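A quick aside before the break. I want you to see a complete sequence-to-structure record at least once, exactly as it would be stored in a machine-readable document. Don't worry about memorizing anything.
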Amino acid sequence: MNKGIRIIFASLLLLGILILARDHIAWAGHASVVNNVAGQGQVRSVVKDIYAQDPGSVQPPPADLVIPVTGTYSVGGVCTLQVEVTDKVVLNAVLLAFDVLDNKPENTTRYLAGVCEITFTVSGQTVTALAPENGNVKICFAALPNIKSAIYVHDYKTWTALDTTLEENNSLECATASKAGRYVLAENNP
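That is the input. The structure line, written in tokens, reads:
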């Protein structure tokens, strides 16, 4: 008998909560916009609209950057650029999907991170490489433990393996990024 009373009490409590909560969705942003939404497709649309209005306190890093000054920049959360440039240089960095690459670098098995494309303009002119007198750029990807890898650049013609070093207590794989092109972190053949 005690068990039956507890089940009835729990059911009534749950029913009361459901009645009080009915059309309300828990959200850390603007709850008033979300109320009275009927279908799942509409919920997705409203959530998209809310994110556009107020994306919250944790925002993803941009996947397309124009970098006109010295600093450290995250490109889409995939690669980090440490940039030291003169005031004549503007660097463009874009995160791309793997399918933009037609082939893999030789002696590699797979890509380990996204494709970060870098282009340079110096005094308004596009250049294929950044000269040392105009500055330097280092690109870093998160290192994966127990995987032999390297950073490669595709200059729109050929792949080049870069001198890749482990930094930050072996948590980052970094290389100089002085060429315009598409940079990837790839696993080397064993």
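Two observations worth writing down. Helices lie at 2-21, 31-34, 40-53. Residues 24-51 have pLDDT under 50 and may be disordered. We'll return to this after the break.
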